[in-house]
Amino acid sequence: MEQNFDALKKQLLMTRKNLAVGLSEGDVSKADGYCDGYKAFLDQAKTEREAVNYAENAARQAGFVPFAYGKQYAPNDKVYFVNRGKAIILAVIGEKPLTEGVRITAAHIDSPRIDLKPNPVYEDGELAYFKTHYYGGIKKYQWTVMPLALHGRIIKKDGSAVDVCIGEEESDPVFCITDLLPHLADEQMKRTLAQGIKGEELNVVIGSRPLGEAKAKEDELVKLHVLRLLNEKYGIVEADFLSAELTLVPAHKAKDVGLDRSLVGAYGHDDRVCAYPALTAILACDRPKHTAVTVLTDKEEIGSDGNTGLNSAYLKDFITALSDAAGVPSYVVLANSECLSADVNAALDPTWPDVSEPRNSSYVNYGVVVTKYTGARGKSGTSDASAEFMGKVRRLFDEHGIKWQIGELGKVDAGGGGTVAMFIASLNVDVVDVGVPVLSMHAPFELVSKLDVYMAHQAFHVFFQA
Length: 466
Hints:
Layout: H1 2-12, H2 19-22, H3 25-44, H4 48-61, E1 65-66, E2 78-83, E3 87-92, E4 102-108, E5 113-124, E6 127-135, E7 148-155, E8 161-166, E9 176-177, E10 204-207, H5 221-234, E11 244-250, E12 255-257, E13 263-266, H6 269-283, E14 291-297, H7 314-326, H8 330-335, E15 338-341, E16 345-346, E17 368-371, E18 375-376, H9 387-399, E19 404-406, E20 416-417, H10 421-425, E21 430-435, E22 437-438, E23 446-449, H11 450-465
Parallel strand pairs: 1-2, 4-14, 4-15, 15-21, 16-22, 17-19
Antiparallel strand pairs: 2-3, 3-14, 5-6, 5-11, 6-10, 7-8, 7-11, 9-10, 12-13, 13-23, 17-21, 18-20
GO molecular function: aminopeptidase activity
Cofactor: Zn(2+)
Enzyme class: hydrolase
């Protein structure tokens, strides 16, 4: 009877297992090696422009060529398309006709950060500052008193472009947002945590030495000094900030975390921890049955709006261009297409368990997370994957040894969030979120498991090649 009971448990009950226990030493070594490349990507791609530049260079090295509208492509042709320098689509043409659909992975390459206002430079108390406007969902207090690097692009009055990166090299200066010392912070500490640092208090120190001797209080010679330094280095003037995209990001590098080096700590895991595996999977894709497409998109953290976000038409237009060249209606292609929306989920944090429901939470080291729906509370702002597509993904992963888990973004009434899945679903494509569980999501230093990152690459690769 006891033997039958054990067999029945094995047959009927669902079990989950830590990958660190189940994987071979060889697979663990592969994961660690894969994440060396991932860390290098994180350090080189802290903004969406830098991520696109990295992806384009990697694509060219892998034999991809720029996409040509109107050209009919043959199986295994490899093409890419860059949208305004801030989003990129890569595709490998499949052996099956487009009428059978394409296979898409979609990840975003923007992350929460501190943007400069259009007129950012000012002086106060003989210190020079940048005025800022934060981007995406952040806890503002986390961004004070830490080294920051300045990244971005300036378009000068003559139309020429200047790319800026200050704070990443060992010899570079960095920037910082100040905070009050505890001895004088009684009033500040009475604020709620959300208001501990207000948006207009995210002012970034950029200099303190005046240029020459002031004749009047209004001379702003510290401001003039930093503007002269910027002019000497980049040839810009203050008015050039009006046509610039400049952002402040953490200056630290991606690092191994833990005595066992099992975790990667870095800025920008959300969502570059899925963007990198989606990129490496398409670069490794060879002679797929269905046309394989990876899209690395912008603006997800602020709703995917704008012409480089997936709420715009550029992905649909790309599929339409492929379809038109093949003489196939694009609506037929899209209706038969499938997508893994490559985005992260919140790993259960034992320090903060109250916001999670353990049976439906994702865990570090348990593989990629399949998230049937995201949204907030009553599933608002989400795509809820069908049972049929969930079953298909489940079979695919199980048959190919992909270690995966189910996940939900916190307790029902705790809050929530969204991904790009609903924008792809609006094209009449079957879609479900598949990604990596993250600790301290949206913080300047997030944590992920190396095993989960590698498993994401394996999952996307299997999806393309199946």
